Amino acid sequence: MDDAPSRGAAFLVTQLGTHCAAKFAVRAREIGLTPPQVGILGLIARSPGQSQQAVATALGLLPSRLVGFVDDLEDQGLLERVRSRTDRRNYALQLTEAGRRKLGEIGRVGREHEQDIFGNLTDEQHTELVRLLQRVADEQGLTAGVHPGFRSLNSEVC
Amino acid sequence: MDDAPSRGAAFLVTQLGTHCAAKFAVRAREIGLTPPQVGILGLIARSPGQSQQAVATALGLLPSRLVGFVDDLEDQGLLERVRSRTDRRNYALQLTEAGRRKLGEIGRVGREHEQDIFGNLTDEQHTELVRLLQRVADEQGLTAGVHPGFRSLNSEVC
DNA sequence: TATTGTTATACTCTATAACTATA
DNA sequence: TATAGTTATAGAGTATAACAATA
């Protein structure tokens, strides 16, 4: 008897989630980004002009951590810090043209990633899996744009 | 347009996996254990008498990390280090009676965890979800007893 | 010489708190 | 006085490498 105990859905999701996160991190690094930076670019693409505070809150990471990520994205020429006219304390973060191009790369990488992990499912199976996961995620309050995994586990559970 | 982009299965699995891991860590802590320690106790229950090297390899964590976990489990009286007669360099790790009782608690906590996350699915939906996840996990080579999340992401992907 | 378990050291990552400039 | 962004410091967690005991 060397079998693992029958794995429940929770164990399988945890195991596969860790696996997916690790594989995606590799793909993100290949285009010069960390996973949180992918989230930052996507958020600014959807809602341009937000302050760093707003981005930090939306993604569930500390403002002090955000600084370094934005520094790097700015160094790469993917976004700009534009001082707000009305309140010169904060910035309005904007994608550059290169940032919009990078967004296309992110999309390509994301599709490759999805195919890599779930490519052996039929379309029907894939659709059913997404439906079930979406339902559970909604019930667990994960619908919002806040990405777990960017924030610490401690702040997650308190 | 403030919607997140349609979330693929990979994103959902990553998001839910992180969420599940965090919630399980809380439940494990309530019975005095860390997630790796849960894995250690389960492995020794299934295959008693293994050396620390064997356990470390099976769970994908470094032998030097294992020492502290086993120290704590021994302090709690849940397992014993028994010197091997044939090779006095290594130990044969054995559960104590208290360790076997703790295993029952782990089972209870695991069922509560599963119910907490997936309790709103019908039995048919739950079964279908497990089937799909199991299939993907198998194809990704996650069938073995090696638990990702105990080892570092770096060693995972290289 | 090789291996098991252990310890010591260094490194990475993250949280906390202090600081500045604006308001 | 309060807030946005930043920097500095400290702490937790982990990997690497050195070590003693045994083979």
List the helices and strands and how they pair.
The structure is a homodimer of 158-residue chains.
Chain A: H1 9-30, H2 35-46, H3 52-59, H4 63-75, E1 79-83, E2 91-95, H5 97-118, H6 123-139, H7 153-157
Antiparallel strand pairs in A: 1-2
Chain B binds a DNA duplex (23 and 23 nucleotides) through residues 51-53, 62-67, 81, 87-91, 152, 154-155.
What distinguishing features does this structure have?
disordered C terminus, disordered N terminus, homodimer, two-stranded antiparallel ribbon, mainly alpha, Arc Repressor Mutant, subunit A, 158 residues, globular
Structure description:
The structure is a homodimer of 158-residue chains. Chain A is mostly helical. Chain A has one domain (9-145): Orthogonal Bundle (Arc Repressor Mutant, subunit A), CATH 1.10.10.10. Helices cover 63% and strands 6% of the residues of chain A. The first copy, chain A, has helices spanning 9-30, 35-46, 52-59, 63-75, 97-118, 123-139, 153-157; strands at 79-83, 91-95. In chain A, strands 1-2 form a two-stranded antiparallel ribbon. In chain A, strand 1 and strand 2 (91-95) form a beta hairpin. In chain A, helix 1 packs across helix 5 and helix 2 crosses helix 5. The longest helix of chain A is centred in the first third of the chain and has 22 residues, at 9-30. The termini of chain A are far apart. Chain B binds a DNA duplex (23 and 23 nucleotides) through helix 4.
